[in-house]
Design brief:
Helix content is about 35%, strand content about 25%. The N and C termini lie far apart (about 65 Å). It is of the alpha+beta class and about 190 residues long. It is elongated. The protein folds into 3 domains: about 1-35; about 35-55 and about 115-185; about 65-105, no CATH class. It has helices spanning about 5-30, 40-55, 70-80, 155-160, 165-170, and strands spanning about 65-70, 85-90, 95-100, 115-125, 130, 135-145, 175-180, 185.
């Protein structure tokens, strides 16, 4: 072998070694930051993304116009009337109060959502294990604060009529959720 071929061979080995080292470093870096890794950061991001699309709301399965004769429900809905989100009329013939959405309430009706959860801490999680979805699942307990809370939800009258809203708006809360590990990362099974 000549000295030129030795140098070429040595240079080629150095280039290959550098390429292998770079590839290994990239694989290690992406593997450590994988969306599928069971980490607090991934859990937090997944839960926050989910609740951005699934806000906390006062009412479910209610369509307007809505009528009720239940005194407790009437009292609660009347706080939304006082806040100019609903309008009401009493129908004496059937002894019910009928509610319709006021102009100011159109943006929030029919569910009257009052913000979305943002995780402040992951309190605990179970080790991933095969779940009902066929994917590894983990059960998460977390603490949260509410974001994007409308002004009407900060009203003392509304908070008194809807205590769960009041606690969530002022103190945040805690929740539990199950996440499934998919090829695309962690997701909330629905």
């Amino acid at each position: 072998m000549t000295s030129t071929s030795l140098c070429s061979s040595s240079a080629a080995r150095s280039v290959r070694l550098a390429a292998v080292t770079l590839t290994a470093a990239l694989l290690a870096a992406t593997g450590c930051n994988s969306k599928a890794k069971p980490s607090e950061a991934n859990f937090t991001q997944t839960i926050n993304n989910y609740y951005t699309e699934h806000p906390d709301c006062l009412l479910s399965n209610v369509r307007f116009p809505y009528a009720t004769s239940d005194p407790a429900e009437t009292k609660r809905l009347n706080t939304l009337v006082k806040s100019l989100l609903l309008e009401s009329s009493y129908e004496t013939a059937v002894k019910t109060t009928r509610y319709t959405v006021a102009r100011a309430g159109e943006r929030y009706a029919p569910r009257f959502c009052y913000g979305h959860r943002t995780v402040s801490a992951i309190d605990s999680s179970t080790p991933p294990a095969k779940g009902s979805t066929g994917f590894p699942e983990t059960h998460i307990k977390y603490s949260y604060k509410l974001q994007d809370v409308p002004v009407w939800a900060k009203s003392p009258d509304i908070q008194a009529a809807f205590p769960a809203l009041g606690k969530a708006v002022t103190d945040g809360g805690s929740g539990e959720i199950t996440l499934a590990q998919t090829l695309a990362g962690w997701q909330v099974p629905e």
